[in-house]
Design brief:
The protein is of the alpha/beta class. The strands form 2 sheets. A 6-stranded mixed beta sheet has the order 2-1-3-10-4-11, with helices on both faces. Strands 7-6-8-5-9 form a 5-stranded mixed beta sheet. α3 links the parallel β1 and β2. α1 crosses α12, α3 packs across α10 and α5 crosses α12. The chain is globular and about 65 Å long. It starts with 7 loop residues before the first helix and ends in a 6-residue tail after the last helix.
C-alpha cells in the first residue's frame, strides 16, 4: 500500500540519515545518560497514548535506559508541545505528536509558544492510522449517505464528540461536515477516551476517530462503523467503504503520528533515535498491532517528518479557516 506524502526525496534522505549515524559524535556514543521522557499531550487511552507506550517499551530495551511516558494534556495538545519545545535539546525529552498537534495547532492557536516548523528536531514519522466514522447503534443510519440525509433532515440535532478543540478528531469531523454540507453539534472533551465513553453510552450520536479507539466498540455492536477516512479501504476492515467512494471523491483525513524533540538536538542523537524507533515500528508484533487497526508503520529518516509537518500545515490551513476553527 502506498503511503501519502512519501516521495523519492524522502527515500533519498535515508542515505544522509545513515551517514550522520555512522559518523556520530561522542554525545551520541554516551546517549542516553539519563531517563527519556516521552510526552503525550493528551489524556491516557487514545491512539497517541497507546502508540507511545508501545514504542517506549521497545525503546527502553534498545537504549538500555528508562523511557517514561508522561501525559500532559491541555489546549488541544499545545501544553505538552510547548513543554517539549522549550526543554533542553539533549534528546531526553520527546513529543509523541500527531496531525493535530503538529499540523493543525499552528493554524488554530495564534499564540503558540514555539515555532511550529523550526521549533522542532524531527525524530521519526512513525505511523499512519485511518479514522473511522461511526455512529451510536441507535442512530438510524447504516451508510454515509444515510447519515448525511439524516443530518440534513435535522440540522444541529446530531452531536459529535472529539478529543478537544482543534484535535485530529475535531478537524476530521469538521472537514466531513464541510464537505457534506451538514450541520452537526460539536461537543469537545479533554481527550479521546472520554468522548468515546459517551459515544458508546449514546450521549453522542457521531464519532470520527482512529480505529483503535472506535473499532473495539463496533465489534461489540455498541457502535456502527460507516466508513474510513483513508484513500483506499483498510486492509484490516475491507468491508468498510471509504468516505471518498461513499459519494465524496478526494476525501482523505487519516491520522498520522510522529516523534519530535526541541530544536537543536545533536544530529547524531537524532539519527540514533530515528534508527531505534524505526526498528521498533518494523518489529513483528508492532506491525501486527498496527495491521489489526488498519494502520501502517512509516520507516523513513527524520527529514521526512519535517516535510510532512510543513506540507500538512499548508494543507489544513484553508480547511480550518473555512470551518472557522480558531482557538486562543
Amino acid at each position: 500500500m502506498s503511503v501519502p506524502g512519501i516521495t523519492r526525496r524522502h527515500m533519498g534522505a535515508l542515505g544522509l540519515a545513515a551517514g550522520v549515524f555512522t559518523t556520530g559524535s561522542a554525545r551520541a556514543d554516551t546517549f542516553p545518560s539519563k531517563p527519556i521522557h516521552l510526552i503525550v499531550p493528551f489524556t491516557p487511552g487514545g491512539t497517541t497514548d497507546v502508540l507511545a507506550r508501545e514504542i517506549a517499551q521497545k525503546l527502553q530495551v534498545a537504549l538500555g535506559q528508562t523511557v517514561i511516558v508522561e501525559n500532559r494534556p491541555g489546549a488541544g495538545g499545545s501544553v505538552g508541545c510547548e513543554m517539549v519545545a522549550r526543554s533542553e535539546p539533549d534528546g531526553c525529552t520527546l513529543l509523541m505528536g500527531h496531525i493535530g498537534t503538529l499540523a493543525v495547532n499552528p493554524s488554530v492557536y495564534p499564540h503558540l509558544g514555539y515555532d511550529p516548523v523550526k521549533g522542532w528536531s524531527s525524530i521519526a514519522w512513525t505511523a499512519n492510522v485511518p479514522n473511522v466514522l461511526a455512529v451510536h447503534s441507535s442512530v438510524p443510519a447504516t451508510s454515509v449517505k444515510e447519515l448525511v440525509a439524516l443530518a440534513k433532515s435535522k440540522p444541529g440535532a446530531l452531536a459529535y464528540g472529539t478529543g478537544g478543540n482543534g484535535t485530529a478528531s475535531h478537524i476530521a469531523t469538521a472537514y466531513f461536515a464541510m464537505v457534506t454540507g451538514i450541520d452537526i453539534l460539536h461537543v469537545p472533551y479533554k481527550g479521546t477516551a472520554p468522548f468515546v465513553v459517551d459515544l458508546v453510552a449514546g450521549l453522542l450520536q457521531i464519532g470520527f476517530s482512529g480505529t483503535p479507539s472506535i473499532m473495539p466498540h463496533v465489534k461489540t455492536g455498541q457502535l456502527r462503523a460507516l466508513g474510513v477516512s483513508s484513500a483506499q479501504r483498510s486492509t484490516a476492515y475491507p468491508e468498510l467503504p471509504t468516505i471518498a467512494e461513499s459519494g465524496y471523491p478526494g476525501f482523505e483525513a487519516d491520522q498520522w503520528y510522529g516523534i519530535t524533540g526541541p530544536a537543536g538536538i545533536d544530529p547524531a542523537v537524532v539519527a540514533r533515535l530515528n534508527a531505534e524507533i524505526n526498528k521498533a515500528m518494523n518489529s513483528k508484533d508492532l506491525r501486527a498491532r498496527l495491521a489489526q487497526e488498519g494502520g501502517e508503520p512509516i520507516l523513513l529518516p527524520p527529514q521526512a517528518l519535517t516535510e510532512q509537518i510543513s506540507t500538512e500545515i499548508d494543507r489544513w490551513r484553508p480547511v480550518l479557516k473555512a470551518a472557522n476553527v480558531k482557538l486562543e
